Amino acid sequence: MSTNREQWSSKFGFIMSSAGAAIGLGAIWKFPYVAGTSGGGAFLLMFIAFTILIGLPMLISEFIIGRGAQKEAVSAYYKLAPNSWWTITGKLGVIGCFLLLSFYAVVGGWVLIYTVMAVGGQIITPDAAYPELFGSVTSTPGLTLIGLAAFLLINIIVITFGIQNGIEKASKYMMPLLFVFFIVLVIRALTLEGAMEGVKFFLNPDFSKVTGESALYALGQSFFALAVGFSCMVTYSSYLDKKVSIPASAGSVVVMNIFISILAGLAIFPVVFAFGFEPAEGPGLLFMVLPAVFSQIPMGEFFLAIFLLLFLFATLTSSFSMLEIIVSAFIENGKHTRKKISWLSGIVVFAAGIPAALSFSLLGDFTIFGKNVFDATDFLVSNILLPLGSLLIALFISYKMSKQLVKDEFTISNTLSPAMYTTWSFLMKWVVPITIIVVFMSTLGFI
Prior knowledge:
One of its GO terms (cellular component) is membrane. This protein is mainly alpha-helical and 447 residues long.
């Protein structure tokens, strides 16, 4: 690898950083409420199937493109397919990450606000009404904008430190702690009276709820939760040492992601049913359920604060990858410093995120196709741009990129059987693109 490019210091650091990029709001915040509105167990099965058959091959593909080119997302496609329209794939990734971060940082701001409130003992109170508290936080314009700004400020500071001293150092210590605290939360949730109704809803599939739209949501969730489709992982893997096995690393990230998604469901739905919440509560589900869980635990306020701190970290490690793809695209040519572009990018994302932040207050009556700005941006990113980006990447690696380079990157330090490459290649060439196209057509009413 070229000497002027930073590298991850270890395989563990890369996996934890990639897992951090993947495991965040997608698995912990978004998965439970999307599953709640899309049939519970039926959605879970679709999500796992899409993650293994579509998400994992896609993650491997982005790793191959990034390390094969040893360039960030935009430059990678320029290098591998010069003077061709394929370079739009990297540009779409930067634009997509920009839009994604503009509403993702709003939720990150909510998490930050809740964390500060929990540390100050302001959430769990004898007469607490958690839905009303969440509504109060999200409907206060000044508070949501402060949360948005503070969340992006943390991102900017970490990204300015670079790969090893910023993203990797933050990720490899805190991600394991998140797993431990999540397991504690699940154990407590499962001991609540009425919890088994929630487990049944989450694990017992109701296929009557399966529609083209719910399938699209499951597909979009598998992309969203793994941070694939926008070439974020192309950028991350461009810093990866050649000795590391790409399939093994990708497999580790996927297993951790599915595990955390299942833990999220087992932590949330038992409480939803035990406390009488609605499974289809929407984006606020987690913010209403978490305090209810911890209110039943001795020293609940303390544990809620600790968990929210770790949840905030998981949220941040995901947003790091989004800001990194934007920043790295502008510093690759060496004309601009990482510090300067990090600050400029953060400020522009903040400005773009203001309408989403005000979607539950001042702009509550403003809608786009029947959705507020926050929900419309979420739908555009998760259900249209992410699958579109994934389709382009699948076609690129199958039909445009050098087959020898692809095979070399796949097989380096790979102890898996040769059949694995053939299987992955078949999935990327046929199953992935056809699945994306079919679900799209079904959603648009053509099937």
